[in-house]
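Late entry, evening session. Most of the bench is empty. Finally got around to the prediction I had been postponing all week. Sequence below, unchanged from the version circulated by S.P.
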Amino acid sequence: MVKSKGKAVFKNEDDEGLIAKAQEGDLFSFDQLVKKYQKKIYFLAYRMVKNHDAADDIAQETFINAYSSIKSFKLGYSFYSWLYRICMNLSINHLKRQKFVIPESQFEEEASPLEKEAITEDPLSLLVQKERERKIEQAIDSLPPKYKAVFMLKVYEDLSYEEIAHTLKISLGTVMSRLFRARERLQKLLKDMVLDK
């Protein structure tokens, strides 16, 4: 990944040689691409579906789809954002099948990254922080998949509007509209959650 003016740029020159070889049927080269991106793709899927087994299946399916379509990939484009698009589409389809209902128990199973980084000896502060994070995660997970996908790519992956549009194959205006609606829904949901306290 290359840095440009403090922002990550997805195009990676090293990928091009591996992709070219993979397009000629070199399994080792494709395997190198899988090893390079498998963790990122898994975590993207997990953030979307909140289930380890489903995220693992989606990550595997992402690479299976990528391998079967590798010959149609155009060199010069970002392989990473191509994988993102496949993974996001599979995640959205999974959520639609599940009707984006996440069991409550999954929010309590493991600590969030913010919680793990919390350095405090005050149990009350930790409890308040954990509850706040749980409510935020619940609110994000209750978003319709098309809004959640845009929100995740913007907030968690720090992609630009243009990168999101390219990744999801939607217009720039649609990205901005969905992001606005996602934030609007989250504000309402979080406000309602606070009032329900």
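Two things to note before I forget:
Residues 1-100 form a domain with the Rna Polymerase Sigma Factor; Chain: A fold (CATH 1.10.1740.10).
The longest helix spans residues 172-195.
Will write this up properly tomorrow.
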